[in-house]
Design brief:
The protein is of the alpha+beta class. It is built from eleven helices and 20 strands. It binds adenosine-5'-triphosphate (ATP).
Length: 369
Amino acid sequence: MAKVKLIEVTRKFNNVTAIEDITFEVPDGEFWVLVGPSGCGKSTILRTIAGLESVTSGAVYIGDDLVNHLPPRQRDVAMVFQNYALYPHKTVAENLAFGLQMRKVASTTIRERVEKVARSLDIFHLLDRKPKQLSGGQQQRVALGRAIAREPKVFLLDEPLSNLDAQLRDDTRAELKQLHQKVGVTTIYVTHDQIEAMTLADKIIVLNRGIIQQIGEPQEIYARPNNKMVATFLGNPPMNILPGIYVGDGFKIGEQILGCPSFVRDTLKLTQGQGLDLGIRPEYIEVIEPQRRRERREEIGGGELFVDVKVIEPLGRETLVRVSLSGLDLQMEVLTPGNWRGRVGDRISVQLDLNHLFIFDPVIGNTLY
Ligand code: ATP
């Protein structure tokens, strides 16, 4: 096992800068996830660690060794791709053993390792089958097993679950997590799926346009995003962003005024007429039933907005309601209990929990509050 360290790594392809000034250190044995939208540079980072891509500038360390100029096979890393290519004519056992045979590992050791890995991934009963006799999920587990059997210092996984259907994806994700807890190999995992990132990671690196936006534990990034991109990328349904104008006591949002909490006013030096982006997660918006509005007047305070119901999406335990605000060309998402009985076209009152309000600079996007 080994730590992985990148210092100011940049990779350019002619005039395209795929990644820029990437610096981070994954401690020995941890599971880190690189996440971000398509084209943000996730795979390029992984490939520079694997040695499949050279760096334009900067340093890559595995353990204490600078590996910039080492070819992939000398880096002792195992990479699993989305399109895991298994050898079609070899059995599962032979696929698992192949990398070890190439390394001239003793045959008794190979047999032991193959069996151990096959048991831990629940593919022991499949050892004699050929890949085409396996389901997609089973094939994916063989591909993971092949990487694990090599006992590399570092695992690099590039969207390894993206070919699986939803149920299998959830199951394999949970297996991966348990496996890491058992094996404890330093792992760097690439995904554009924020749920995978949140559930698997010791730490998440959020990337956008080749630049690191934030590094932190999942909950920390979720609760304290550095900027609007991170705030809206992590969380499902995503954080709502409402353009507002500061008007003294509150923010003008479309044709309505949302109260500005005193703790925000005391912290930020806002000026009248200043444009801001306000952020609120759907779970911090509550639909106020008309009959309860009067009794809740006090607590509703300045957080109330009137909205029009546009789309209702029952999710089972909860219902996702998309609403519009008059004077604004956008929709806001609100989570209500599953038994909520509203209708499309209703005008309803919603209460924003202002203790969970974010404020972003509307131009640069950085978090102001
Ligand atoms: P995805 O989630 O779509 O796989 P990604 O985040 O993994 O995307 P990369 O594949 O690392 O992104 O690509 C980052 C940027 O570098 C993109 O703009 C891509 O077009 C560019 N890029 C990657 N490889 C090359 C290459 N060999 N030649 C030219 N440009 C490249």
